[in-house]
Amino acid sequence: MTKKNNSRAVGHTYERILRQEFIELGWDKCQTSRYASREHDDANVDFVNTEPFNFQAKRWTHAPSYHDVLKSMPDDNHYNIIIHKRPNKGEVVVMSKNSFYEIIKMLKVNQII
Questions:
Q1: Could you tell me whether strands 79-86 and 47-48 are parallel, antiparallel, or unpaired per DSSP bridges?
Q2: Count of domains in the chain?
Q3: Does residue 19 surpass a pLDDT of 90?
Q4: Which site among 11, 19, 75, 110 is 20 to 30 Å from 1 CA-CA?
């Protein structure tokens, strides 16, 4: 298997792991966009049925340009989120500051925080 094919397989495996985690979090209809929606896959959204979020999963050994990845995602009424896993470094979740503040305001309005 070539390095590119191996990287692709690692990325697909990571998507399947995240899909299972999303199902456990309550998005029971979650599917990978590779399986369920070419339109979402082409729009750099890796999962469907995870409203109100659009997720892009990255399993890279280096940090992607988060700004470029977020810019490539849809400009719709969903929050665009990147989940990035680096070997031996852990996982991070990245979103725009505006999206983060909207979620904070929503939590405050609903007296969750």
A1: unpaired
A2: 1
A3: yes
A4: 19
**Alpha-carbon separation of residue 13 from 8, 59, 67, 107 (angstroms):** 9, 9, 24, 33
Domain that holds residue 100: 3-109
Identify which of 15, 8, 42 has the alpha carbon closest to the alpha carbon of residue 30: 15
SS3 annotation, the chain: CCHHHHHHHHHHHHHHHHHHHHHHHCCCCCEEHHHHCHHHHHCCCCEECCCCEEEEEECCCCCCCHHHHHHHCCCCCCEEEEEEEECCCEEEEECCHHHHHHHHHHHHHCCCC
Question: Which CATH number belongs to the domain containing residue 31 in this structure?
Answer: 3.40.1350
For the chain, the average pLDDT equals: 92
Q: What is the mean pLDDT of residues 13-31?
A: 97
Q: How confident is the model at residue 39 (pLDDT cuts 50, 70, 90)?
A: confident
pTM: 0.87
Higher model confidence: residue 78 or residue 60?
Answer: 78
On the CB side of 31, CA atoms within 13 Å amount to 9
